[in-house]
Amino acid sequence: MSYVKLVVQRYDPERDEKPRFQEYIVPYRKGMTVLDAILYARDYLDHSIGVRFSCRMASCGSCGMKINGKPALACYTQVSELGTERIVVQPMDNFPVIKDLATDFEEFFEKHKELMPYLVREDRAEQENPKSEYLMKPEELERILQFTYCIKCGLCYSVCPTVGTDKLFPGPQAIAQAYRYVEDVRDEGGETRLNILDNPHGIWRCHFAGSCSAVCPKGVDPALGIQLLRRYVMRGKAPRKKGEGSKPFTK
Amino acid sequence: MGDKIMTERKIMMIQYVTGILSVFLVSVHLLYQGVIVPYEKAISFSQVLSLYRHIFYGSMLEILLVVILVHGFNGLRIILLELNQSQDWSKAVDIITVIATVVTIAYGTRTVILAVFGGVS
Amino acid sequence: MEKGRERNRRGIRGWFDPTVPNNLERWAYFFQRLTGLGILAYVIGHIGDTSFFVGGPFGTGPNQSSWSFDLSITENVVGHLILIFVVLIVTFHGINGIRLILAELGIMVGKPSKIEYPYRPSSLRSVQRHIIWVAIVLAVLAAIWAGSILFG
Ligand code: SF4
Of A103, A121, A151, which marks where a domain is finished? Predict the structure, then answer.
C-alpha cells in the first residue's frame, strides 16, 4: 500500500444542509494511524477539516469517531489493521456535530457530572483538610480499578441504543462511573446516586445490549458496572450509608 | 420520585416477577395443550370447557392472563418512554398502557368467568 | 447547532446495529424488543379469539357453534404457521428474558478484575452469552416440534 484514500464526512451545521463526503489521497507510511492520515490531510491538503485530538496515544479520549462504520479512537487504529485502502471517517453517533469529525460533549459531561463522579464524605471539613489517607484494601481497589481507566472518549455513548432515542438516559459512561464511586469503600454518596438513577429514564433503561463494552478502547466494561450497580438500585440500598466510608489511616 | 406511587424500581421488580411467572405458565400451557393432550383434542369444545372448569387450570389461565398482560404492556410502556421524553408523552404513555392493561385483563377475565359459570349452549 | 444535534442522534434505527464487533448481546437486544412486541400482539389477538369460546364479545357462556366458527378461522395452514412462529419467538423471548433478568441483577456477567491488553470485557465473555445461543437453539427446536405437531 503506497497511499490511502481517506474519505471524510464533512458537515458544518451552521452552513450545510446535510453532510457530504470528501476524498483525500494520503501517502501511506508504516505504523500510520487513522489520526495520522487525517492530520496529514488537514495539514497538507485541506486546512478546513474539523477534528479534535490531543495526546495521540489513547489517553485523552478526544479522537473517537466512526472508522469504516465502526466506532474507535482514530489514534488507536492502525491503517494497516483495517485491511483496506479506502478509509471512511465519520463523527460518532449520538453526539451533536460541531464540525466534520468534532462532536459536542456538553450533554455527555453534564450527565457524568450529575452522578457525582467524585468521593462524597459526610464529614466535609475532614475531606477538605485530610490529615491522612483513607484506607482501602487491594481487593477493594480491584473492584473499581478497571472503571477508573475511563478516558471519557464517548465511544460507549455513541453506540448505546437507549442513548440513541432517550435524551434523559445518563448513558453507559456516566452510570459505570456512578458504580465506580458507589463501590469505592471511601465513598458515602451511594444512596444519593442510587436515588438519581431510579427513575423512568434512569438505570432501568439499560437493556444490556453490551455494545458499550464491545467498543470501549480501555477495557472499562461499562455494561458490567451498570449491571452490578443495578443490583444495589433494585435492593434500594447502597453498600454504605453516610458516615460508613473507610476511616482515615492512623498509626 | 417521592411523589410517585410507583418508583421505577418497583415497576421493574414487577416486570421481572411477571416475566419469570409468564415463562413458567406459558411453558405449562404449551406443554399441556400440545404434548400431554394431543393438539386435535386440546382445542375441542369439551376439552377446552373442562380446562376452564378445572380449578387449577382455570385459575392458572386467569393468572397467566394477568401476568402476561402486565409484563407485555409494561414492556410496551418502556419502549414508548424511550422514544420521547416530554412530560405530556410520558404521562400519556403511562395512562394509555394502564388503561390498555386493565381493559384487556377485564375482557379476558370475562371469558374465563363466562366459561366457568355461564350456561353451555 | 440544534439541527446537527438532532441529525446525529440515532433514533430507532439504532436498535439494530450489526456494525458493533463481537456483540451478540446487541442482536439479542433487538430481537427481544421485536419478539416482545410480536408476542403482545399475539396475546391480544388470542384473548379476542378465545372469547369466541363463550360466544364472542356479546356471548353469555360456552357456545359450541361460536367456538366452531372461531376454529374455522384459526385452524388452517396460515393459522398454524402463525402458531409455529409464535412458539419460536415465545421460546426465544422467554429464555433470553431469564438471561436478562439474571444479568440485570449482576448474575452471570463476571466480576471486575485487573485487566490487561488486549481487553476482553468480562460481561461479554461470561455465561450469559452462552444462554443467548441456548435461546436460539431451543427456539428453533421448539418451532420444529410445534410444526411436527401441527403438520405432522
Ligand atoms: S467507558 Fe470506555 S468507551 Fe466509554 S467513555 Fe470511558 S473509555 Fe470511552
Answer: A103
ipTM at complex level: 0.94
Are A114 and A226 in the same domain?
yes
- B98 is a domain residue: yes
| Cβ partners under 8 Å of residue C137, min gap 6 | none
Buried b or exposed e, range A222-235, using 16+ CB within 10 angstroms: bbbbbbbbbebbbe
**Helices assigned H by DSSP within chain A:** 34-40, 79-82, 106-114, 124-128, 138-148, 155-159, 172-182, 190-197, 211-215, 222-235
Q: How many domains does chain B have?
A: 1
The CATH number of the domain holding residue A25 is 3.10.20.30
Alpha carbons within 13 A on the beta-carbon side of C99: 27
Domain assignment present for C11: no
H helix or E strand, kind and range, residue A26: strand A20-27
pLDDT digits (tens, 9 = 90+) for B82-119: 999 999 999 999 999 999 999 999 999 999 999 999 99
- Cell 459536542, located at residue: A104
CA A157 – CA A215 distance, rounded (Å): 10
Q: Residue A210 burial by CB count (10 A; 0-12/13-18/19+): exposed, middle or buried?
A: buried
Region of C73 (left: φ > 0; alpha: ψ -120 to 50; beta: rest) is alpha
Nearest CA to ligand 1 atom 8: A153
Domain range holding A112? 106-235
By most ligand atoms within 8 Å of CB, the mutation choice from A103, A152, A163, A213 for ligand 1 is: A152
C74 in a structural domain: yes
CATH of the domain at C102: 1.20.1300
Q: Is the pLDDT of residue C7 over 90?
A: no
Question: Is A38 in the same domain as A129?
Answer: no
Give contacts of C68 with chain B, Cβ < 8 Å: 45
